[in-house]
Amino acid sequence: MSSESVKSINVGICGLGTVGNGTLSIIQNNADEIARRLGAELRVIRVATRSLNRDEVPGVANLGNDPFAVVNDPAVDIVVETIGGFEPAFEVVKQALGNGKHVVTANKALIAERGNELFAVAEENAVCLAYESSVAGGIPIIKVLREGLAANKIKWLAGIINGTGNFILTEMAAKQRQFEDVLQQAQELGYAEADPSFDVEGIDAAHKLTIMASIAFGIPLQFAKTYTEGISHITPEDISYAKELGYCIKHLGIARLSERGVEMRVHPTLISSKQLLANVDGVANAILVNGDAVGSTMYYGPGAGAEATGSAVVADIIDIARYLLADAKTPVVPALGYRSMHQDLEVLSIDEIESEFYLRITAMDKIGVMARISGILQEFDISIEAVIQKESISEYVPIIILTHRVVEKQLNQAIESIEAMADVSESITRIRVEPFHGEQG
């Protein structure tokens, strides 16, 4: 593309880790293609990074370690925040927006927990705060929910939105391995951090689900109300019993709109082996979205990595560059997809949510125990869909029960009564079951 009379959009990057490097690499390697799409050049003119090795940052004139030097540079049109965490990331983004600069961030925790405040600053200054890369890496799910499905009333969405957890459950299912062994392998492969709690306890997925639910249902970001449960208690036996019943276990983020309010929850889930989500293995991500007009659609791809996430960052940069080139006065698409949010939609607590359940009960292998367990379930109006009672190899035997739909607080009362039985030896394992109302995607 001829450089004569071609406009330039100047980009500054704060943080040059995995995502920052991926972003810089894509802008530089795909410069000609981006210029053809945009009708202008994207130029990275300033980078702030802890490593000041110029050989690692080719083609950038201004290299330093102060991110505030980037956001205060009048020549920078778009600031990219890939620092991660809350500080200094929050102040960097807030000051950039306050300076009237557009910002692109890959920081899911920042958006989920501080996004309401930052979007208000962006609106006050008529600039964009874009965050496609904060959810599901290279899958453009933010654009799908905010723009592609804008004609729909979203009924529910469900996703495998953490690749580390999905890798662990995939390996446990394929090779009947214990959680701890597969976690160690995931750490050795670089899929899991030294402290894996954000991934395996569901916090990472809860950040992403909070963002998607806000866009899907037009509600303010409410991370504190997202129920979060990890996968460390899942055993190979649970996976095997679920398979016997026609299910597999996935660590899902689920958001649903009902007459009573909004559900936002991350937890291990039994889903039918026929579901498309059930066949998403390894570190891949996938999100199933159900809208009233379109029905169910599914989005699959890499949920992390330098190039996949960098692809989403650069797509946001290109969107903002188009806005700048059009000389628009205010962002065309609202930050969360709604000009007027639903302020009155209540987020339900997990105790109020209805679900089907898988229960694993370790009980004495003697006559009458199963009858007493069934009686307690009946006392709390919980009906049984299926039962597996395994052969005993000791005086105790695992009893597997699938229930029909029940409000969770009722089930909690029943579980408390069953665990109080002298013939029940351990805490009951409970996993929620999601049929998605027959929707196969």
Describe this structure in words.
By secondary structure, the chain is an alpha/beta fold. The protein has three domains: 7-138 and 306-325, Rossmann fold (3-Layer(aba) Sandwich); 149-301, 2-Layer Sandwich (Dihydrodipicolinate Reductase, domain 2), CATH 3.30.360.10; 351-433, Alpha-Beta Plaits (2-Layer Sandwich). The protein has helices at 18-29, 31-38, 67-71, 89-98, 108-124, 141-148, 163-175, 179-188, 197-200, 203-217, 236-244, 306-325, 369-379, 408-419; strands at residues 7-14, 40-48, 62-64, 78-81, 102-105, 129-130, 154-160, 227-228, 247-257, 262-272, 284-291, 295-302, 354-364, 384-389, 396-403, 406-407, 429-433. The strands form two sheets. Strands 7, 8, 9, 10, 11, 12, 13, 14, 15, 16 and 17 form an eleven-stranded mixed sheet that branches. Helix 5 (108-124) links the parallel strand 5 and strand 6. Helix 4 (89-98) packs parallel to helix 5 and helix 13 (369-379) runs antiparallel to helix 14 (408-419). The chain is elongated and about 85 Å long. The two termini are 42 Å apart.
